[in-house]
Design brief:
The longest helix has 16 residues. This protein is α+β, with helices and mostly antiparallel strands. It is globular, with a radius of gyration of 25 Å. It folds into three domains: 103 residues, Roll (Ubiquitin-like (UB roll)); 125 residues, Orthogonal Bundle (Fumarate Reductase Iron-sulfur Protein, Chain B, domain 2), CATH 1.10.1060.10; 78 residues, no CATH class. The protein has 15 helices and seven strands. α3 packs parallel to α8, α8 crosses α11 and α12 crosses α15. Strands 2-1-5-3-4 form a five-stranded mixed β-sheet. A two-stranded antiparallel sheet has the order 6-7. It starts with a strand and ends with a helix.
């Protein structure tokens, strides 16, 4: 079948901005996007620029945007894309500086990986728990399968607006070391991840999970890092206070008290109270805040809710 490929082109030496170029090519039923790009470069346009290496979904080099979604070109067949979208549009990864055509600069990506110290500071061998080592692979939650393709960073809504965010790939890798039984500096790692740009900046949009070609589930790793932080007593950040306050209110009242929640999260500092006052007024006008706003009777059967919390406390290690 003959297919038209709409491919973003950009040569910084002569183009002021990226533009889209149509290419037509006859392809077979099982042809991948990468195979088509290689043929286009060899047969149609020798200036077409893109990255690839292994062609087997191992190196991550050929990550790009295909029909609006971050994918590996070597894994993406043309026919299903046509059937689903009716066209083939190819562009570079978002959120990373463009070099040429479909090639982006990965320096920022690697800086984020280096920032989480991607190596083990090992415990003495005699202090390593052999039982935990046996179960370590399961504890890693598949984060070691990451091929560092950058697709999750390109899809990340937080990184799009804040380049200071560590990013889903680096944070998922950080969890791999926090979960490793041989690691000696877990408390230090968790403490560093509380800073701005760390685990509490993730909005849990789930896009990183959707686009990951290796099912790493970066967002789930970030959630596990948050859980480990709270269990370690790191509860001073706004994000951690939101979680602990939510749980505390449910434990005592059996439901969310939207009047008390902001106060428990930000505390009773005058500056913070003035900052959320407009929100409080809007909530009151919408009937979200009872009067008086700090009082709300517990739900009937609250003892059953509290029993669930007590049972959970007994099962904690």
């Amino acid at each position: 079948m003959r297919v038209t490929f709409h491919i973003q082109k950009y040569n910084p030496e002569k183009d002021s901005r990226p533009y889209e170029e149509p290419y037509r090519l006859d392809v077979g039923r099982g042809t991948t996007v990468l195979e088509a790009l290689i043929r286009l470069k060899n047969e149609v346009d020798g200036t077409l620029t893109f990255r690839y290496a292994c062609r087997s979904a191992i190196c991550g080099s050929c990550a790009m945007e295909i029909n609006g979604t971050e994918k590996l070109a070597c894994m993406t067949q043309i026919r299903p894309e046509l059937e689903r979208h009716g066209e083939i549009r190819i562009g570079p990864l978002d959120n990373l500086p463009l070099i040429k055509d479909l090639v982006v600069e990965m320096d920022r990506f690697w800086e984020k990986i280096r920032s989480i110290q991607p190596w083990i500071e090992p415990l003495p061998q005699e202090r390593v728990d052999p039982i935990r080592m046996r179960d370590a692979y399961k504890a890693f939650n598949n984060v070691e399968a990451c091929i560092l393709c950058g697709a999750c960073v390109a899809a990340c809504t937080v990184y799009e607006v804040d380049k200071g965010f560590t990013g889903p790939a680096a944070l998922a890798k950080a969890y791999r070391f926090v979960a490793d039984p041989r690691e000696s500096i877990v408390p230090d790692r968790l403490k560093r991840l509380q800073e701005d740009g760390g685990i509490w900046d993730c909005t849990r949009c789930n896009y990183c999970v959707e686009v990951c070609p290796k099912d790493v589930k970066p967002m789930e790793a970030i959630v596990l890092l948050r859980r480990a932080s709270i269990q370690s007593g790191l509860t001073e950040t706004m994000g951690s206070r939101h979680i602990t306050s939510f749980v505390d209110i449910i434990r005592h009242e059996g439901r969310l008290n939207e009047g008390r929640m902001p106060l428990k999260v930000i505390g009773f500092r005058v500056r913070n109270l003035l900052r959320i006052l407009p929100l409080g007024i809007r909530m009151f006008l919408k009937g979200k805040v009872p009067f008086p706003f700090t009082f709300k009777p517990a739900i009937p059967g609250i003892r059953h809710v509290r029993a669930i919390f007590r049972a959970r406390e007994k099962t904690k290690p």
